[in-house]
Every structure is written in structure tokens, then in C-alpha cells.
Amino acid sequence: MMQEFSHIKDDRAYMVDISNKEIVSRYATASGRISLTEPTLESIRSGTVEKGNVLATARTAAILAVKRVPEMIPMCHQIPITSIDVEFEVGDTDVTANVEVRSVGKTGVEMEALTGVSVALLTIWDMVKSAEKDDTGNYPSTAIKDIHVVKKIKEQLTNQ
Q1: DSSP character for 141?
Q2: 4, 87, 93, 154: which has the fewest Cβ within 10 Å?
Q3: Residue 158 reports pLDDT greater than 90
Q4: Residue 61 class from Cβ within 10 Å (0-12 exposed, 13-18 middle, 19+ buried)?
């Protein structure tokens, strides 16, 4: 049996019509991590990275990215974002980014959460890339991994 994709019709990509969908409360959280060297992680912990506060910058970048998803992903609808929360965990070998997005609307927020995580991790990489480069200008220890949706919830509103 062939998988049916909601954004493809007659071999053409199109934006799905959501006008008849109900307005509901929507929530998604996504996570991902970036592997870094121990000295870089210590610099993040101690706040001594040359470019500035890595996690504060990555948090701001994630929030901005969530708000711009329809501009980057062609078939995503503009939706009313009601809340964005970005958290980081600095471990022994990596930094984990968790992004939670909430909306009240007709379509989900998982792409927004995934985009927030991706941009947060890319921002971390950008902030520390000078410390992560080896003698050849490459990044043998740096890698973005495991970006995924952790949880997605859709709940009927009680006051409609």
C-alpha cells in the first residue's frame, strides 16, 4: 500500500487547506544535542567564550527561528504562537537543547519546535567554532545529533 502524503496532490506540492479544522490548543517539544570538546564545554559553563553568552544567544536565536518557520519551510502555515520555552543542559560531552512551543490554532507546532532546536544548536556551533577547529580548520569533535520531536499534544479548548 502506497503512503499518502497530505502535501502532495497530482504529483504537485501544495499547502494543505486547514480552514475547516477546529481551533485547539497545541503543544510540541523537540530536543537535540551538539557534541563539543571538553574545553569548549567548560568555556560555556564559565561564561568565557570570546563571542559572548552562548546559551543566551542560542535561546534568542531559537525564539526568532520559531517565529519565522513559515518563511523557511514552504508548506508551513503562519500560526499564532502563544509560548516558546528554550532550555539547555550542558553535559560532559555535549549541550542538549529543548524547545517547547505552544499555540492555539488549526495546525500543529512540531515544525516550529524542531526549527527552534536546530537553530539553537547551529547558533551554539557558530559561537564556539573558533575553539572547536583543529589545525586543518575542520571540526572533528563537533556534531549536531538526535534532533527529534519529544512530545506533541492537541487538546480541545473548553471555552469554545
Answers
A1: T
A2: 4
A3: no
A4: buried
Q: What is the pLDDT of residues 95-131, one digit of tens each?
A: 999 999 999 999 999 999 999 999 999 999 999 999 9
Which of these, 148, 119, 121, 118, lies nearest to 132 by C-alpha position?
121
Of the listed 10, 85, 92, 126, which one is catalytic?
Answer: 126
pLDDT in tens, 29-38: 999 999 999 9
Percent of the chain at pLDDT > 70 equals 93
Backbone angles phi, psi at 15, to 5 degrees: -85, 125
Q: Is 17 annotated as catalytic?
A: no
Helices and strands (H and E) in the chain: how many:
4, 6
Phi, psi of 98, deg, nearest 5:
-125, 125
In whole angstroms, what is the distance from residue 22 CA to residue 160 CA?
Answer: 10
Q: For residues 106 and 145, what is the distance between their CA atoms, to the nearest angstrom?
A: 30
